[in-house]
Amino acid sequence: VLYALGMTKTSQPLNPEGPGLVKTFKRWAAFVKKCRLFDNSQKEFQVKLGLAKDFGSAKTTVVANETRWDGIHDTIERSTDLEIPMYKAKSALIDGNVLDLMDLDDDESSVDADAELPLEEDSLSDASSDSDVRLPTPSREKKWEDRMEERFPEKKAWHGGHGLRTALGASRAFNKLVQPSTEPTTHLTLKLARGVSNACSRNPVKVTKWVTSGESIVLERDRVMAVDLPSVAQTTRTLLAEQVEKGFFEDDICERDLVALHMDVTADPRNILKSQALETRMKKVYQKLYRETERRLGVAPGSLRRGQKKKQQRRSGDDGFDSLMAEVEDP
User: Fold this and answer.
1) pLDDT tens by residue, 117-132
2) 3-state secondary structure (DSSP) of residue 218
3) Is the torsion defined by CA of 176, 177, 183, 187 positive or negative?
């Protein structure tokens, strides 16, 4: 995922917008967490807009953990969930008035699809000045206002955030289902990986979008063509699909996963592996493991004496096997 977002040395040139957009939302989430005045204001607007039952149940931002990529999705998802309350809190605190809901509708004609997203460099702990000259210290409120103006994502960044939320949704689900599970999930690895790959090529896709209805505003999922996604989301989807294919469905595929897939009667390996060579390899590694298990359990069939023919067991044509398999493949 970090590769798909352009957050590695080799992939940064492939997705130059990704790191800047991720940093924008990380810095904004950290600001909201630290500025109680703004956080309380956006929570109050959640209640007023009917997005939260009361102040206590209102949500705040999530700051991504640097060591876990799914934290990036959590940060962007929560921020886009709170986009409208944050717009209104910013307007109330800075201008003293509240924007009309209709003023926040996405005007696609004003968004430059080719413009680069800013890659911001400073952090919350930046020093105000390196000069030895003592300057007047601005009020704390003014300081936060300046920081809020500086870090509040622009409209194009919000648009890109909704797109990345869609692009990373399947891979995040994969991680949540497989990694922290207390139950065996080996049989799911390849199936879910194929699901991630398919999701990255699906068209059309569903993207979150704020929609006004009378005096209320809600976050809905709108079906759009993949080519209409923000460019950063399109690139992320393409790179992520390539990485999934490379990591799960090439020659270095894990034998354990192949065996688990072969034993899963609910899956058709042809639809998951999409490779005759991998299907052949899957059967070979399963037979190898099966024979090794027989030997360990001491139930391996004895070797035949020279000239002795192996007794074959023929399956009756009316034993129900074929009909049962048809039920498995076509429930």
Assistant:
1) 443 333 333 333 343 4
2) strand
3) negative
